[in-house]
Amino acid sequence: MIRLLFSAFLLIFLALPPKAGAATPQGSAANKTLITLLNTPGIKGAIPTKVLRKALEGYYALLEQGRVARKGILTVIDFNRPSVDRRIFVLDIEKGELLHSGLVAHGMGSGEGMAERFSNIPGSHQSSLGFYSTGATYQGSHGYSLRLQGLDPGINDNAAMRSIVIHGAEYVSDDFIRKHGRLGRSHGCPALSFSSFQQVIDLIKGGSCLFIYQDVLDAKQGS
Length: 223
What we know:
The strands form two sheets. The protein has a seven-stranded mixed β-sheet with strand order 3-2-1-9-4-5-6. Strands 7-8 form a two-stranded parallel ribbon. It is an alpha+beta fold and about 220 residues long. It has a single domain (about 25-220), classed as L,D-transpeptidase catalytic domain-like, CATH 2.40.440.10. The chain is built from six helices and nine strands, in the order αααβββββββαβαβα. A hairpin with a 4-residue loop joins β2 and β3.
């Protein structure tokens, strides 16, 4: 009788859903990598811990789901920073290295010196937040460019239709900042400087994970 009761209890226990905040393999991997990266020169103090944690948790979840094809490379754009700051970071999270940091423009509909408004709507000229997978390169109106696929429904899943891509732009430079007090702005693309865009595209192309963050994303995702 005792054995039957124990078996019934065990079956009920195993059927219960995990508690909120319970550890997952992805969460454990994210925490381990976070500790490593926070002690990496160039990363510590450059990317807020909260932002880096969210980026890593999303990266490992998407990798597990097969939604990003390329392991090890994670790009973070922190739109809590003004456009005059270095706010794009390319990380090799397997080697624990910062591969690149630099300037990146936001959409003209998102604000001037700060990105404050975000949209998934075609024609808004606003940046879109959330997780992306990088695609193939191509030669377009901005020259060498990189396609992006938005992975967050309702937040950035219109990115391909909106032609949101990574490309170089003359208005992304220290000279432009000195003249205007801010970077120029795109039609919603995360545009990079002419001095770095080809290098960055070649570092992250082919299915790596890109995370664009600003605090308003937490409200959109209910977190």
